[in-house]
Design a protein that fits this description.
Chain A is α/β, with parallel strands linked by helices. Helix content of chain A is 50%, strand content 9%. A six-stranded mixed sheet of chain A has the order 6-7-8-9-19-18. A three-stranded mixed sheet of chain A has the order 3-12-16. In chain A, strands 1-2 form a two-stranded parallel ribbon. In chain B, 43% of the residues are buried. The model of chain B has no long low-confidence stretch (mean pLDDT 93). Classes of the chains: A alpha/beta (804), B alpha/beta (296).
Chain lengths: 804, 296
């Protein structure tokens, strides 16, 4: 029996800690910004990589450290729980401009003191013209800047923060220990040929690595010292003992590999933390935690050193600590990531490389402990496969029925063959994990941003297609078309015009990514993160320089369902049935369906044409073909790492568009699917709100007709169920069997569930104080509902509520 | 004629099912929750709440509609006048319920969810209306489903000639057979039908088929008394093999449809029956050795 009976009762110390972190008002912490600014200004002559190592060192040695009451797992990102550090080297211009508004944002507000405002103003002045954002924009052509300013392609998030979207090699970290890394680095460093230009660069890299790892070690030792100090003054004997234990753990793992589960988990948390002090990229993920921690767990259980209760408590503590990490983004990017999540993914389940089920006791414990905490972090993903332990699957559904959107499922049956086809080695393909929301990568072997580069607004491209390439929102023709709507005599003409436009925009997303990558590589290289990814150390390269074993990235395409529905409406009503003329249609969308006639046309577009999500080949295949035009074009390009080491260096499609459907819709006028101007577009690969009227099996069928094996950046499907829909055991079994059919037969890529009633959401919108802990799936991640902006709240409420 | 094909039904038989609703029924039960299923011809349904006054329906010149004070009014008329209105209303306030579909069309719709039937032990449920009033071609559909190994359940009033039942017996997995009342006069008064035909058919069917679930609608004013239900159960006890008894407490979710069809309904003000109210019936059935539950 793999399943353990663990109590649902949360210990006092964990519930106290949870409450303190949940109640902590998000705020701004300036410590890191001050240290980085000082280190940069004192070391201006140094190569950037050394400068960054020294800045990290100064921060880790000087920043506040604290151990909160009851904590068993320690480590803090900033001076307080949920206080967001500032990363001025990426972008800081926006801060003085927005800081007076931070506390009053409609969603994701941050508290900031007047003193911090003053500090940040000075910091921002020093960084003027020196940030990644400044330099990245400067190396872009005017066309690329215009495209971004037009909102057709959005990449702001990529120049205002680091890359991340990565999981590091925890197997190696836990077996080598930090001294192991130092030894390996030293070996390679000693072989560097300084007579060669390449050698000079490698010399800097290894030097920076050593500075950073040693700084990391001393950071851990600071917690050793602090724990000892607290231990000596602690009156409570039990707590004093715990503090002594914490000190001992920190001592061991600051140098050597962990000796037990507790130490292993503590080291994992430190690594997770440090990566988010080095860089502010989000979606730093923990990989397959139930696998790499299992040997420690098993050994401790066998020798009687660990109980499941205590293991669970340590895990719970870790989840709370993940929530205490925070990130502040400019408002322009915040809207794309509603709820302020960091998307720290934990993946459990899946298969071993021989195809056997990898579910173990720890998978159950992780699942259960996440359910006990009911927090937005970690983002829990389960790898589904056809031989998955049935009891485990039912436990997953039990957790889903608790209504905070976890776990999400990724499907081995489509992901693994997809990876093998890309040239990923078998052993690695079977070891993939989810990153961030639903994206995937092989932990510790994959470069940054398996997804998360630029967002392409498909509906803006589609509208430009109708006007010979003219983007009516800006009045600019970015790419001259091959005709406009009044010249299209058949659907084929329309489709050819689409092909023409989408190829241009596909190329431009890559150009923007290339500019961003070039700037990041040159100006803000990550050091520690590179150390923990295979094969950066042996190649003497950062990840961005081509250090990783694999390199595949995806951008995000937004408005999938709207594209299919618009194509189908035009094909059917304008070309086939001739119920509408082009003029009628264009007048209607240009006037946002104004007047009686406009309203009538809107209803015709909505009700007289097939909609994606209802298992209707008519629209589903039009969508597939239109999307494939983008995908084929994208496949022609390479990343900046091409020819520099990694396998792949290619792009693929992705629909893990987080909450981008709301801001993306806000810049699109009315569309031929009957969507009103500036309302949200459809989310991920899910159907448009309220248009999937045949129930979840039909949605599954439609989604599975997308070329899922080519959309390795993720095929995001969000289904909403009311709590009553899976209350009985028989309903849960039916849901389990439905998932089996979706994944095994239809090769679905991903699905996640929002189990919450419409009434609850409406009540929460009115009375946020009483629904503080209401969690919803926004897209690929969970967020506290009451922290979302009203627009995003409305969008969630509007989505179809499926009933089982 | 079909009036709806509902996918992902989880409460009418085992597993995940697709329900095919046939149009046309020999009975006229006063409490019927699908009144649009009664006529064998297309029916016009008008939901005034959705009407946007586009008046596309009036523009067709169909005699089935005329302008009203607010929106439109619908009138009784010939089928051809009704069919003129099919897919005319942009806001779907006015819909024509009922569509002639070939069995191959139905089959392709049913086939779409086969992976879900397989995974869940589900299948197809033929419902109505009265599916067994659909004529001999129904067996073609059943034969093809059997050939494709799709489990079939039939929901039936059994108020049909015996031949209609007989030709389906070997092609059907489960019969969900209604037994509304055993008293002839009451049955006749509330449904317009003949209870003896139902009881005779049920008796014969139970001798030839071993997977029958009896469904007893619990209807206030009709059979919702201890004596009446016990009589019905006693009749069930006289049958050869019965798998289960399901009590279906009356609900009034179909009442809006009467308004949409423009017809009066005597059950307008009757309150729904709570699940607890059938607990005693379940106990009685169980005490007699039957497997009984509430709901489908």
């Amino acid at each position: 029996m793999l399943q353990k009976t663990i109590t649902d009762i949360v210990s006092d110390r964990m519930s106290g800690l949870r409450e303190r972190v949940m109640r902590a008002k998000p705020s701004v912490c300036t410590e890191r910004a001050l240290f980085y600014t000082r280190a940069y200004s004192e070391n201006e002559d140094q190569p950037v990589i050394i400068k960054r190592a020294l800045a990290l060192e100064m921060t880790l040695k000087g920043m506040s450290v604290f151990i909160d009451d009851g904590e068993l797992i320690v480590g803090n990102q900033s001076s307080n729980h949920r206080a967001a550090p500032i990363f001025p080297e990426y972008a800081v211009d926006w801060l003085p401009a927005e800081m007076d508004e931070l506390a009053f944002r409609p969603g994701d507000a941050f508290f900031i003191t007047e003193e911090h405002k003053k500090e940040l103003t000075e910091i921002a002045a020093w960084w003027k013209g020196k940030t990644l954002y400044n330099k990245g924009r400067a190396i872009m052509s005017q066309e690329l800047r215009d495209l971004q300013d037009s909102s057709i392609i959005k990449a702001t998030g990529n120049l205002t923060s680091g890359d991340a979207h990565i999981a590091v090699d925890f197997y190696k970290i836990l077996s080598a220990g930090l001294n192991g890394y130092l030894g390996e680095i030293e070996d390679y460093h000693s072989q560097v040929k300084r007579s060669e230009q390449e050698g000079v660069r490698k010399d800097h890299f290894y030097t920076a690595l050593k500075i950073s790892i040693r700084a990391f070690q001393s950071f851990i030792l600071r917690f050793h010292d602090l724990a000892l100090e607290k231990c000596s003054t602690e009156k409570d004997a039990k707590r004093s003992g715990e503090l002594a234990f914490i000190a001992a753990n920190c001592k061991v793992i600051s140098e050597r590999p962990p000796e037990n589960f507790y130490q292993a988990l503590q080291l994992v948390y430190f690594v997770q933390l440090i990566l988010q002090i080095e860089s502010n990229g989000h979606s730093v993920s923990l990989g397959r935690m139930d696998q790499y921690l299992y040997p420690f767990y098993k050994n401790d259980i066998i020798t009687g050193r660990l109980t499941d209760e205590f293991a669970s408590e340590l895990l719970e503590n870790t989840w709370i600590k993940l929530l205490s990490i925070n990130k502040i983004r400019p408002w322009s990017h915040t809207q794309f990531s509603a709820g302020g999540p960091l998307y720290q993914n934990v993946t459990i389940g899946g298969q071993n490389s021989d195809g056997s089920d990898a579910v173990n006791e720890l998978s159950f414990l992780i699942l259960h402990s996440v359910g006990k905490m009911k927090l937005t972090q970690p983002n829990l993903s389960v790898r589904f496969h056809k031989n998955i332990n049935e009891g485990f699957l039912l436990e997953c559904i039990n957790l889903i029925s608790k209504g905070f959107g976890m776990p999400a499922f990724n499907n081995d049956e489509v992901v693994i063959p997809g990876l093998l086809k890309l040239g990923v080695e078998r052993e690695d393909a079977y070891n993939y994990s989810a990153i961030g929301c639903i994206e995937i990568a092989v932990p510790g072997k994959w470069g940054y941003r398996c997804t998360g580069m630029s967002f392409l607004n498909l509906m803006r491209v589609f509208l430009a297609t109708l006007y010979d390439g003219l983007d009516k929102s800006t009045g600019k023709t970015f790419y001259k078309g091959i005709g406009s709507f009044d010249g299209f005599e058949s659907y084929d003409d329309l489709f050819k015009a689409w092909q023409h436009q989408i190829k241009y925009y596909a190329g431009k997303t890559v150009e923007i990514d290339t500019a961003v990558d070039t700037a990041i590589e040159e100006y803000v290289p990550d050091i520690l993160c590179s150390a923990f990814v295979d094969s950066c150390i042996s190649r003497g390269k950062t990840i961005k320089e081509g250090g990783s074993k694999y390199d595949f990235v995806s951008g995000l395409q937004v408005g999938i369902a709207n594209l299919g529905n618009s194509l189908a409406a035009i094909k059917k009503l304008v070309f086939e049935e001739k119920k509408l003329t082009w003029k009628q249609l264009i007048d209607a969308i240009e006037s946002d369906f104004d007047g009686k006639e406009g309203e009538k046309i809107r209803y015709m577009l909505m009700n007289f044409a097939p909609k994606y999500g209802n298992d209707d080949d008519y629209v589903d295949l039009l969508l597939r073909d239109a999307y494939l035009e983008f995908i084929y074009e994208l496949e022609k390009y390479h990343t900046t790492r091409y020819g520099r080491g990694p396998i792949g260096c290619r792009y693929y499609a992705g629909t893990s568009s987080i909450s981008a459907n709301v801001p993306s819709g806000a810049v699109v006028s009315a569309t031929p699917d009957g969507r009103k101007a500036y309302t949200p577009v459809a989310e991920g690969s899910s159907p448009s709100s309220g248009t999937d009227i045949l129930g979840p099996t039909a949605v599954f069928k439609s989604v599975s007709k997308l070329p899922t094996e080519k959309i390795m950046g993720g095929v995001l499907l969000n289904q909403k169920l009311s709590p009553s829909a899976i209350s009985s055991e028989s309903d849960k079994k039916k849901l389990a069997s439905m998932l089996r059919a979706f994944f095994c037969d239809l090769k679905g890529w991903h699905v996640q569930y929002n189990i919450v009633s419409r009434e609850t959401l409406m009540a929460a919108r009115k009375d946020p104080e009483n629904y503080r802990d209401l969690i919803v799936r926004v897209a690929g991640y969970c967020a506290f509902f009451t922290t979302l902006s009203p627009d995003t709240q409305d969008d969630i409420i509007a989505r179809t509520e499926q009933t089982l | 004629m079909i009036f709806n094909i509902q996918r992902f039904s989880t409460h009418d038989g085992e597993g995940i099912r697709t329900i095919v609703f046939f149009k046309g029924c020999p009975l006229r039960c006063s409490w019927c929750s699908n009144p649009e299923s009664q006529s064998f011809a297309p029916s016009l349904m008008y939901d005034s709440r959705l009407c946007r006054n586009f008046l596309e329906c009036i523009a067709t010149g169909s005699e089935a509609v005329k302008r009203g004070v607010n929106g439109i009014e619908i009138k009784e008329t010939s089928d051809s006048e009704i069919i003129k209105l099919k897919d005319i209303c942009p806001s779907r306030a006015l819909v024509v319920s009922g569509e002639e579909k070939s069995f191959s069309d139905i089959l392709s719709e049913i086939g779409k969810d086969i992976p879900f039937y397989r995974a869940s032990g589900g299948g197809v449920t033929l419902s109505g209306g009265e599916p067994l009033s659909q004529g001999p071609a129904l067996t073609d559909l059943l034969t093809e489903l059997k050939h494709r190994n799709v489990n079939v359940a039939i929901e039936t009033s059994l108020h049909v000639p015996w031949e209609n039942i007989e030709r389906c017996i070997n092609l059907t997995g489960t019969f969900l057979a209604d037994l509304k009342h055993t008293e002839l006069s009451k049955f006749s008064r509330f449904t317009g039908g003949d209870a003896s035909l139902v009881m005779r058919n049920l008796k014969r069917l139970s001798e030839l088929h071993d997977d029958i679930i009896i469904r007893i609608p619990v209807i206030p004013g009709f059979n919702h008394t201890k004596n009446e239900i016990e009589e019905i159960i006693n009749f069930v006890l006289s049958l050869k093999t019965i798998r289960e008894i399901h009590f279906l407490p009356y609900h009034n979710l179909g009442m809006g449809k009467y308004r949409m069809l423009g017809i009066e309904n005597s059950f307008e003000s009757v309150k729904k029956v709570e699940t607890e109210e059938v607990a005693g019936y379940i106990n009685y059935a169980e005490s007699k050795g039957l497997i009984a539950k509430s709901g489908g």
